[in-house]
Amino acid sequence: MQRKRVLPLAALLLCAPALAGTVPAVAAPAPQAGPAPAPVPARQLRILLTNDDGYNAPGIRLAFARLTAAGHDVTIVAPLTNQSGAGTKTSSAPSVAVRHPEPKVWAVDGSPGDSVSFGLSEVFEGKAPDLVVSGTNFGPNVAALATHSGTVGGAVAGLDAGVPAIALSTGGVAAPDPVTTVNAMGPTLDFSVKLIDRLRSRARSGPLLPKGVGLNVNHPVMGADGKGTAAGVASTFQDPQALLKADYTDAGDGTWKVGVTVDLRPPARGGDVEAVSAGKIAVSPMNADWNAVPVDSLLTAALIAGLRP
């Protein structure tokens, strides 16, 4: 994977605030009075929106509405049914069922990876989207959850195809509560619009992110109703802990009952678990193999500097 552009861009982002405050040694001539130039409108982004909860889940529908209201051209290409935990799975079947139930919505009977593959090949045939957004997911995708997440898997499918990608998830490290988690999707998407605007403004007419680099964003649930504001935004990495522990009980008939509990260990300093547990939005850079070199973390820290929930 080529990474040559990452360091120059990260250096540029970190230097930008200093350059903006530099005063020239010789004062420039005073500009003549006249009408101020019209601001250059931010370019509209073409976004492929996917998820792993299914094309009609609350998170993806809220994302579609919010990103569309922000001025983007959004098309849903997502699984027909819930594919949570599908990871990066892609089908090898000779055919796939696809529905087109309404304009700008495609439902693929497969995994998030299958959905993104179909979307890039057929729905966006001839001109790739500017961005793949996966989510927002019902529940967090931090620590090892991210490794097995279909939400992250959808973003990875975009990265595999050379398209910038963001995975969005809503939830704390505890088992998600339905009402508060859905309520927290509003603040999650408000932040995602700010993040995408930041990417768009920094990229100008170039790529939104360095080649091969995506972002895994986890928004906590804040307040009794879930609609509260996060405590801040943190540039993080994927905590190496498993987070969940499975227990199997022999039912005596050849089957085993499966129980899963949260097994929260002391979080790694600077990791996504630590940030979300502290009520902060965790933004972790990732490659298609979930790894990120230190310079990607540097880039992410510069990218989100000054952003607020």
What does the model show?
43% of the residues are buried. The strands form 2 sheets. The chain has a 9-stranded mixed beta sheet. A two-stranded antiparallel ribbon has the order 9-10. The model is unreliable at 1-31 (pLDDT under 50). It has a single domain (43-88, 96-239, 268-304), classed as Stationary-phase Survival Protein Sure Homolog, Chain: A (3-Layer(aba) Sandwich), CATH 3.40.1210. 32% of the residues lie in helices and 22% in strands. It is of the alpha/beta class. It contains 8 helices and 11 strands.
Labels describing this entry:
nine-stranded mixed sheet, disordered N terminus, two-stranded antiparallel ribbon, 11 strands, globular, about 300 residues, alpha/beta, Stationary-phase Survival Protein Sure Homolog, Chain: A
Annotated CATH topology: Stationary-phase Survival Protein Sure Homolog, Chain: A
Largest sheet: 9 strands, mixed
Helix content: 25-40%
CATH superfamily: Survival protein SurE-like phosphatase/nucleotidase
Number of helices: 8
Q: Strand content of the residues, in percent? A: 15-25%
Average pLDDT, to the nearest integer? 87
- Please give the number of β-strands: 11
Give the spatial strand order of the biggest sheet: 3-4-2-1-5-6-7-11-8
**Class of secondary structure makeup:** alpha/beta
Tell me the name of the CATH class. Answer: Alpha Beta
The SSE string, one letter per element, is HEHEEEHEHHEHEEEEHEH
Low-confidence stretches: 1-31
* Tally of domains: 1
Radius of gyration based on Cα positions: 21 Å
Q: What is the second-level CATH architecture?
A: 3-Layer(aba) Sandwich
Shape: globular
Separation of the first and last Cα atoms: 33 Å
